[in-house]
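Weekly sync, protein design subgroup
Attendees: M.S., D.O., the rotation student, P.L. (late)

Item 1: inverse folding check
M.S. brought a backbone from last month's batch and wanted to see whether the design step gives back something sensible before we order anything. D.O. pointed out we never logged the input encoding, so this time it goes straight into the notes. Structure tokens as presented (192 positions):
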């Protein structure tokens, strides 16, 4: 009996010391699940209304533009939306740079010297006080852009004739596959 009591005290002591650390590493049930792949972080959030549940799946990477302004490139899709191959995640760029074009429709080029994708970007209202742009979400354009993101080491972004940034793509393929697994869509057309 004494050995049992000592074992129980040792386990209780371990939980007393390590329990708070374990609690900090485990997300609360209502918190989104996150994962990191290279420079990309994914987030999966579930909204259960009681009648149905929808997941929002997002992947994001941070970068700096040539002027040192911080920015993010984010993909986002919900199970309530049309899913690939009918539609692809929305692509949003935010940059803390007030000198960039804010026209409603801006011609843009994404890629590197070997891969180029032309698209239209649309200026949005500021996100958290930062200017943002959404890439035209036509399935053909989105698929070409996502494939380019998988192929390049860094995604060069140009609005009109103005170079915006070169965004590292380390971890993009695994992050995209993670979105597909979490939100239930095939990823073979982008990340085989």
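Designed sequence read out in the meeting:
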């Amino acid at each position: 009996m004494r050995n049992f009591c000592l074992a129980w005290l040792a386990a209780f002591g371990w939980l007393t010391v390590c329990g708070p650390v374990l609690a900090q590493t485990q997300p609360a049930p209502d918190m989104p699940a996150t994962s990191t792949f290279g420079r990309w972080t994914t987030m999966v959030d579930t909204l259960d209304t009681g009648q149905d549940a929808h997941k929002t799946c997002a992947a994001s990477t941070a970068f700096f533009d040539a002027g040192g302004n911080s920015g993010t490139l984010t993909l986002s899709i919900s199970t309530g939306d049309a899913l690939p191959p009918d539609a692809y995640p929305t692509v949003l760029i935010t940059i803390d740079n007030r000198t960039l074009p804010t026209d409603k429709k801006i011609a843009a080029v994404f890629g590197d010297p070997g891969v180029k994708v032309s698209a239209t970007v649309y200026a949005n209202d500021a996100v958290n006080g930062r200017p943002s742009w959404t890439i035209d979400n036509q399935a053909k354009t989105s698929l070409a852009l996502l494939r380019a993101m998988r192929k390049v080491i860094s995604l060069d972004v140009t609005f009109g004739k103005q170079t915006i940034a070169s965004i590292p793509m380390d971890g993009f393929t695994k992050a995209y596959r993670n979105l597909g697994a979490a939100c239930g869509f095939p990823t073979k057309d982008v990340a085989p």
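Discussion: The first strand starts at residue 33 and ends at 37. Residues 1-27 have pLDDT under 50 and may be disordered.
Action: P.L. to compare against the previous round before Friday.
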